[in-house]
Design goal:
The protein is an alpha+beta fold. The chain has 2 domains: 148 residues, no CATH class; 119 residues, no CATH class. It is 31% helix and 11% strand. The chain is built from 12 helices and 8 strands. The chain has a 4-stranded antiparallel sheet, with helices on both faces. A hairpin with a 5-residue loop joins strand 5 and strand 6. The longest helix is centred in the middle third of the chain and has 19 residues. It starts with a helix and ends with a helix.
Length: 309
């Protein structure tokens, strides 16, 4: 049996800001997620409806799973929440540095390797926001925080600024963490702040009305008017609902240097990226989350933001 305290200590040494451990099981109340899909609130994110049975049960990712280690990395860096002093356009904070998938996957690979040195028969599957796995759900189960009314994770240690990764193991661990309690209470700051009504009810997100969805995930040629008139400079993602949360009184500056703002982000903030070639964009943003939207998507977003600026 693996030792929880040693696992957490080593995960923190490798760069995790917070660590929790939980037991895998079928997801509670899967009908809620299924109804969300049936209503089409995932939009073009069809990957969310694929491998649905696997997404709802970690034992389908790793048969005979016994434990899930969840790590959170804090990516907050100070900003006044308005348009950057480098330009007129805004990029969500998580995309300022190197793609977090790389950072967290590297951490979890090293942790898995070290655990295998003590347990040679150990099997472990890494999930970092790309596998059919409910990342925020398991982070809550592992005690890292709770899913707030904006549907993102909220932490009493780190505010709203944690990026998540999980390691599913076929080994028991000697201690498991209790799920975090919801502390939102009567607060509606995030719901009321959403300019497009994407948070149409508490704990309910319609992605097809979300600025982040339209500026990152959607491949449509144009952004609809009801979104573009509310962009307020956002051209990749949106931090509005998480930035207004009162629990950000606990936010702290990031420690992992991979989250430091890349100079190339300035090309998007000042709009100069529209003159960059496709090959230049791929070269400049190869390690950046901004590559997900592609040059075509970034140009579309800037065009939409410019029409309403």
């Amino acid at each position: 049996m693996l030792n929880a305290d040693r696992i957490k200590e080593r995960a923190r040494q490798l760069g995790a800001d917070t660590v929790g451990i939980t037991r895998p099981a079928a997801v509670d109340n899967p009908d809620r997620f299924i109804r969300w899909l049936v209503k089409g609130m995932h939009g073009e994110m069809t990957y969310l409806s694929r491998h649905l049975e696997t997404r709802l049960d970690p034992n389908r990712i790793l048969p005979d799973a016994k434990s899930i280690i969840v790590v959170g990395l804090n990516y907050f860096q100070d900003n006044d929440g308005t348009i950057s002093d480098k330009g007129k356009y805004k990029v969500a904070r998580y995309a300022w540095g190197v793609d977090y998938h790389r950072t967290i996957r590297k951490l979890l690979k090293r942790l898995r390797q070290e655990l295998r040195s003590n347990a040679p028969d150990l099997k472990g599957r890494i999930c970092v926001d790309t596998a059919p796995f409910m990342d925020k759900y398991w982070a809550e189960k592992a005690g890292l925080g709770w899913q707030g009314k904006h549907t993102n994770l909220v932490s009493r240690q780190w505010g709203n600024w944690l990026l998540l990764g999980s390691l599913i193991l076929n080994h028991e661990i000697d201690k498991y963490d209790a799920p975090e309690t919801d502390h939102c209470g009567n607060c509606r700051a995030c719901v009321d702040a959403c300019p497009t009504g994407a948070l149409f009810a508490e704990y309910n997100l319609d992605a097809t009305r979300c600025i982040s969805y339209w500026t990152i995930e959607s491949k449509s040629e144009e952004i609809p008017d009801f979104i573009s008139i509310n962009l307020n400079g956002w051209v990749f993602g949106c931090d509005i609902c998480i930035s207004v949360c009162p629990f950000n009184k606990f936010q702290k500056p990031f420690s992992d240097r991979s989250f430091a703002k890349l100079e190339e982000v300035g090309l998007v903030e000042n709009g100069a990226v529209v003159t960059v070639s496709e090959s230049g964009f791929r070269e400049n943003f190869a390690q950046s989350p901004l590559s997900r939207a592609g040059l075509k998507g970034i140009r579309r977003n800037i065009r939409a933001a410019e029409q309403t600026s």
